[in-house]
Amino acid sequence: MPNINDFSSRFRGGVRPNLFMCQMYPPAGMGTSEFSYLCKGTSMPVSQIGNIDVPYQGRQLKVPGDRTFADWTVTVFNDPEMLIRGSFEEWMRDMQAHEENIQYSSASDVYGQAEVYQLSREGDIIRTYKMTSIYPTEVAAIDVAWDSNDQVEEYAVTFAVNHWETDMGDSSGSSSGISLGGGVNIKNGKVSLNVNAAMKSAGSFLKGAAGINL
User: Fold this and answer.
1) Is residue 1 a part of any domain in this protein?
2) Which runs of E-coded beta strand occur in 33-187?
3) What is the DSSP letter of 186?
4) pLDDT > 60? residue 173
5) Number of structural domains the chain divides into
6) Of 161, 101, 94, 169, which is closest to residue 132 (Cα–Cα)?
7) Are residues 20 and 93 in the same domain?
8) Domain residues for 208?
9) pLDDT digit string (tens) for 41-80?
10) Residue 193's CB: how many other CB atoms inside 10 A?
């Protein structure tokens, strides 16, 4: 019969819900660079497949139906300049104006992306959820009152999701690491340099900046 030591060797401390990061990539020109620091909470997206009951001689055969993508919500601390909230409100305004029934942005500029990273106890990325083709459907109200002491404003933003995918590790599919571009990568707390990628990146920069052909 398994004992507590067997359980401990398999449990290994579990995964902590407060060890996460969330990145937001709205349409171009909308600044949410501080979002990853001020995102108080979110969730990993729901995985949901419908069910079809097919009757046969008094019995029901269950057949997998179509996949649907549930809405996704983030909770954000309000920054002192309210820039992040303003970016979400601008995003929604460009999709549907306040004063008239028109859309300011083109169809391709409606959608953004977001990523949720689950971190291990050592700080490595152990799973990445990447949501593509998302847009905000609601920026929740912020309640204000003179007797609301010792509090920080926060609000929820709800997104419609058309698609999401997942990888073990970071969004590039590696087991645990982050690519910083230019051939520089971080994995398991160690920095590595891909010389060929770094030279290629440097050559592209020089060619673009000074018109040098390499």
Assistant:
1) no
2) 39-41, 48-56, 59-68, 72-77, 112-119, 125-139, 154-168, 178-181, 184-187
3) E
4) no
5) 2
6) 161
7) yes
8) 177-214
9) 999 999 899 999 999 999 999 999 999 999 999 999 999 9
10) 10
